């Protein structure tokens, strides 16, 4: 409670600091998303029961399929791949490469994808699934529970079993049958996400990677600048396909500046794509997708002369931090400050600096340079599960000494709004158990604020000579 209260207060101070600095027009907060689908968690929708054996305790928890609503349209179905980490109600999720999640270091990540491809909801013929797995009759709820249990055995290395007999048989069959499969490709990503160069040139190429048949290209909003999105020969583009190359065509004499383009498509996001939260909420893996809106953004910076930087960032789970890459297509060196240190990138060169970030911690990284240059990158580093290992399956697990919700603690509500059951349930697959505590802290802050207003009014009512 004390730690949470301190966190809430600290968050308030950070927010206040952001508002104070908002008057600086030079600040440029880079998008967190590297491309693909962005969605909001709707909650745990199709589930049954499971039991986690850890630390000498048998802890009940719901196990099944979550649903998300995609920004711009579409629905996703996902499973959890971090059993000890709670979900946050209405958390924002972003399609994320495996190597920027706990899957990157998990030797069994490919087996999880196999499970997703060979079970519910990808396989919706439950009679055929039951026959192949030898489970006996399956319902959507028990099929979802059995699938989630099998995934947890590989994602979290825990000893967990489904309470329903058929669901447990399904989990055992999936676990034993699974073989490695490669990570699925992104639904949409642009590479690189930032380019730079001199005005009078075409800046790029920016390569489009997508599983969609065609994508729409939205050019810079400031048409008066004359900057266009073209192909290599200078032909204006309004659409793109997988492997296509985009350029920012910047006319000679254009005032120094920057612009961005957006590529958007409607497609089914590949099963097995990871989804990481923009806040601290358990990582998910995709089990099914309707036709959904996916998008990606790229930026360009240009100038007539001098240093012309392009800065981007991505999580580096191997090094435990965030890689900030600065390239310089100008004719002078670019000196920037990052995490209290100065770095210089010579003309025509690039440099990558890894900023250390603690696991499960939010980061707010700002790169500053001459003439008011500023770019900010925000996110949460969530590269590991809370369990002891990242590979291995079945009963060899355990909780590795990490605390989970135990009996006697409040039973959480699922993200869908219903009770998860007994007091021994875990918060991991439902709404966060921190929610009522946060509400309590918020109420306390309101009371403190009200008290302050009362005192101010009382003081104002006293004689002015006091």
Which segments are poorly predicted (pLDDT under 50) over 5 or more consecutive residues?
Answer: 1-27, 388-466
What is the strand tally? 24
Strand content: 25-35%
Helical amount = 10-25%
From the N-terminal CA to the C-terminal CA, the straight-line distance is 40 Å
Biggest beta sheet attributes: 6 strands, antiparallel, barrel
Numbering strands along the chain, what is their spatial order in the largest sheet?
2-3-4-16-15-5
Which structural category fits the helices and strands?
A: alpha+beta
Q: Provide a count of the helices.
A: 6
Radius of gyration: 25 Å
**What is the string of helix and strand elements?**
HEEEEEHHHEHEEEEEEEEEEEEEEEEEEH
Shape: elongated
Q: What is the average of the pLDDT values?
A: 81
Can you walk me through this structure?
By secondary structure, the chain is of the alpha+beta class. Helix content is 20%, strand content 35%. The chain has helices at 2-20, 109-117, 126-133, 140-155, 165-177, 435-461; strands at residues 27-29, 38-54, 57-70, 75-80, 92-96, 159-162, 188-191, 194-198, 202-210, 215-218, 228-230, 239-240, 245-249, 257-268, 274-277, 284-289, 291-303, 309-316, 321-328, 334-338, 341-345, 350-356, 362-368, 374-380. The strands form 5 sheets. A 6-stranded antiparallel beta barrel has the order 2-3-4-16-15-5. A hairpin with a 5-residue loop joins strand 23 (362-368) and strand 24 (374-380). Helix 2 packs antiparallel against helix 4 (140-155) and helix 4 (140-155) packs across helix 5. It is elongated, with a radius of gyration of 25 Å.
């Amino acid at each position: 409670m004390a730690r949470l209260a301190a966190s809430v207060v600290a968050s308030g101070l950070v927010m206040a600091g952001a508002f104070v600095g908002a008057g600086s027009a030079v600040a440029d907060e880079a998008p967190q998303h590297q491309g693909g689908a962005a969605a909001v968690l709707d909650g745990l929708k199709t589930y049954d029961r499971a039991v986690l054996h850890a630390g000498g305790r048998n802890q009940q928890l719901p196990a099944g399929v979550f649903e998300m609503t995609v920004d711009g349209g579409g629905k996703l179905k996902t499973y959890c791949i971090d059993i000890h980490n709670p979900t946050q109600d209405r958390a924002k999720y972003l399609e994320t490469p495996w190597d920027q999640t706990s899957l990157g270091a998990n030797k069994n990540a490919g087996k999880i994808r196999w499970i997703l491809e060979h079970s519910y909801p990808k396989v919706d013929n439950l009679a055929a699934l039951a026959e192949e797995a030898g489970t006996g009759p399956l319902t959507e709820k028990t099929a979802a529970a059995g699938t989630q249990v099998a995934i947890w055995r590989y994602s979290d290395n825990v000893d967990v079993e489904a309470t329903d007999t058929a669901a447990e048989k399904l989990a055992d069959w999936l676990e034993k049958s699974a073989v490695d499969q490669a990570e699925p490709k992104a639904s949409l990503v642009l590479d690189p996400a930032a380019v730079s160069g001199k005005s009078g040139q075409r800046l790029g190429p920016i390569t489009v990677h997508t599983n969609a048949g065609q994508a729409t290209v939205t050019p810079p909003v400031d048409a008066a600048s004359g900057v266009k999105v073209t192909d290599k020969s200078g032909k204006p583009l309004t659409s793109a396909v997988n492997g296509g190359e985009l350029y920012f065509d910047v006319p000679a004499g254009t005032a120094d500046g920057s612009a961005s383009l957006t590529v958007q498509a409607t497609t089914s996001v590949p099963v097995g794509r990871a989804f990481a939260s923009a806040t601290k909420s358990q990582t998910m893996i995709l089990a099914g997708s309707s036709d959904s809106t996916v998008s990606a953004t790229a930026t360009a910076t240009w100038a007539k002369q001098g240093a012309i930087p392009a800065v981007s960032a991505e999580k580096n789970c191997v090094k435990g931090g965030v890689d900030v890459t600065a390239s310089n297509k100008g004719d002078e060196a670019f000196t920037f400050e990052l995490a209290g240190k100065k770095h210089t990138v010579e003309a025509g060169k690039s440099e990558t600096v890894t900023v250390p970030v603690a696991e499960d911690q939010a980061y707010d990284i700002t790169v500053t340079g001459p003439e008011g240059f500023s770019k900010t990158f925000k996110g949460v580093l969530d590269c590991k599960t809370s369990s002891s290992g990242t590979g291995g399956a079945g009963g060899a697990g355990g909780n590795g000494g990490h605390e989970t919700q135990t009996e006697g603690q409040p039973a959480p509500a699922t993200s869908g709004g219903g009770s998860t059951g007994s007091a021994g349930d875990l918060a991991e697959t439902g709404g966060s158990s921190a929610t009522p505590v946060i509400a309590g802290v918020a109420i306390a802050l309101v009371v403190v604020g009200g008290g302050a207003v009362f005192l101010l009014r009382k003081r104002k009512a006293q004689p002015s000579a006091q």
